[in-house]
Amino acid sequence: MALPPSLRTSVTPPELELIASEQLVEIIPLVAMERTSFISGAYGPLRPPTKCKLPIWMATNLKLKKKCHIVPPEWLSVEFLQERLSQETSKEEFSQLPFRFTEVAKVLLDIASDDIQNPDKIRYLLKDIREARQAKSRQGLQMIDHNELSLANLCSMEINEIRPFFVRAMGVLTQVNRDTATDRI
Questions:
Q1: Coil, helix or strand for 1?
Q2: Which pTM does this prediction carry?
Q3: How far is CA 26 from CA 23, 34, 63, 88, 152, in A?
Q4: Which domains occur in the chain, in start order?
Q5: Does residue 69 come out as left (phi exceeding 0), alpha (psi in the -120 to 50 range) or beta?
Q6: Taking a C-beta distance cutoff of 8 angstroms, is the pair 56, 22 a contact?
Q7: In what order do the strands lie in the sheet with 68-71?
Q8: Organism's domain of life (predicted)?
Q9: Tens of pLDDT, residues 66-109
């Protein structure tokens, strides 16, 4: 399947999810397992009901086999996300969220929604936060200055979305500045 031109120059969302799957998440194992070595590191031992941290890729694999419960990160709660949504809609700057919050939330909500309190409400809050942040991104890009662009607290998915436009826009601004400087001489 051919990708649209805007995605050909960027990492795709599933690729970003794969990258985010290296992050550690806490689980409650339902089976005992000795320490296991992988290329990315050694994990375990798993001793129910003691919590331990594993990469998301391993935690989701165990979850799909019904061998653990995933403990959602603190930021994946209704209270935290409502607070962030309030900040997004009332302040000009982006609220501070984990760099890969979009990707991690999607993976955990897809695989372990039964381990998360109010998953539907969390989905709606994440959607609202995303829309508020996209509006801020669009507004910020309209006031783009070739000398400086400050969009603090942008997350990986958001950076990936604006990258194609930003690269083209900066190229045009650079060319305009060159032409203006040449006209002055």
A1: coil
A2: 0.80
A3: 10, 17, 12, 28, 28
A4: 10-176 (3.40.5.50)
A5: beta
A6: yes
A7: 52-55, 24-29, 68-71
A8: Eukaryota
A9: 999 999 999 999 999 999 999 999 998 899 999 999 999 999 99
